[in-house]
Amino acid sequence: MALSREQVAMRVAQELQDGYYVNLGIGIPTLVANYVPAGIEVMLQSENGLLGMGPYPTEAELDADMINAGKETVTAIKGAAIFSSAESFAMIRGGHVDLTVLGAFEVDQNGNIASWMIPGKLVKGMGGAMDLVAGAQNIVVTMTHADKYGNSKLLSDCTLPLTGVGCVKKIVTDLAVLEVREGAFHLLERAPGISVEEIQQKTAGKLVITGDIPEMVFN
Amino acid sequence: MAGFNKVVHSYEDAMAGLQDGMTVIAGGFGLCGIPEGLIARIKEMKTKDLTVVSNNCGVDGFGLGILLEDRQIKKMVASYVGENALFEKQLLNGELEVELTPQGTLAEKMRAGGAGIPAFFTATGYGTPVAEGKETREIDGRHYVLEPAITGDFAIVRAWKADRYGNLVFRHTSMNFNPMAATAGKITVAEVEEIVEQGELDPSQIHTPGIYVQRVIKGNFEKRIERRMVRQG
């Protein structure tokens, strides 16, 4: 069965390593924070200027001056630092953030990503997404493998205006985990009960399948 | 010492000199850390054809959103403008011009503007619509886009504490774009929660040195929360 949003987040959380600085985008990426594996410590970066983002505040802790990049009220954990937007993007652009997780409309086999603009629909802006994809050492994209009409979102070439070029390294969809390298999607894992054939059928870009593809394991 | 007393006592004095067609850089992220009273004063002044540079454009009825009500903004430079129905309407009607700018590039444009750097190369936006019409260059195998700096006729910022010298300290994440905006205005006006006695701010803990700030006014802030999220505790 295709993964739920929470399961996608759980699988992405397996990419976290002890000591990582991580920026999580809005939507499914935000849920990753709920599944940080036991025994490892990560520091969440929020691009409005907070390193060490904590959970939502209690009523008593609520503070209008303490928000995340989604403009939600948050808290800071012990060891947190707060700084300006320029400082925040210096650490992003400078490659100091270990992992960025974000959603997308489309990705292609060359690692290009389109996530901010659908021509003909109102464009609200790219926020920090272009800076994040250009700067992060390691980018994981979360998305559904195909749209609601069954059209693949993993393409040979993105059709929508790009957010960044050649930057996506890994994709976790509701059907599969794939690596992007050498101009192709390499299938690493499949969702429990999902066949390689189904993934092949829903992947429009070049898909490389090597040997038996294991099912994802959730602890 | 009067020359270093930057405190003004009315919003009229705080925004004196603002004229039609000027560029105003505003600090804030969403509704967090916005100079509420200075924005309200611009609305009152009915100044038109403004270019406003800020990460967002407020919401309907609050923050920079109120400057849309009488169509005072001609052009908005921002990274994200999705929170605002009136904005959408004026954009679709062609009454409002928008230059969408990646958030980090926007922050750096302000920083560069204030620091006397006319333009800078960044990988952000290369190969995307943002790079169209801009100079690009390959440096050590990576592609970069040349982005011009931004300066403003006015910069309006919100700070937590200030002294009469214009030294500023920001509170929590209301800092956001405010320190860069403060450096990039020909006239920088800081609306602050508290004006403290001289000598009270620790010199090593000042976020924005007073050299960047021309006027300081004590404000009263509603501090509206855009997305109120709480957990049980």
From TrEMBL, chain A:
One of its GO terms (molecular function) is transferase activity. Keywords: Transferase. SUPFAM superfamilies: NagB/RpiA/CoA transferase-like (SSF100950). Gene3D superfamilies: Glutaconate Coenzyme A-transferase (3.40.1080.10). Coiled coil: none annotated. Transmembrane segments: none annotated. It comes from the Bacteria. Pfam families: CoA_trans. NCBIfam families: pcaJ_scoB_fam. PANTHER family: KETOACID-COENZYME A TRANSFERASE, SUCCINYL-COA:3-KETOACID COENZYME A TRANSFERASE SUBUNIT B-RELATED. Belongs to the 3-oxoacid CoA-transferase subunit B family. This is CoA transferase subunit B. It comes from Rheinheimera baltica. The lineage of its organism: Bacteria, Pseudomonadati, Pseudomonadota, Gammaproteobacteria, Chromatiales.
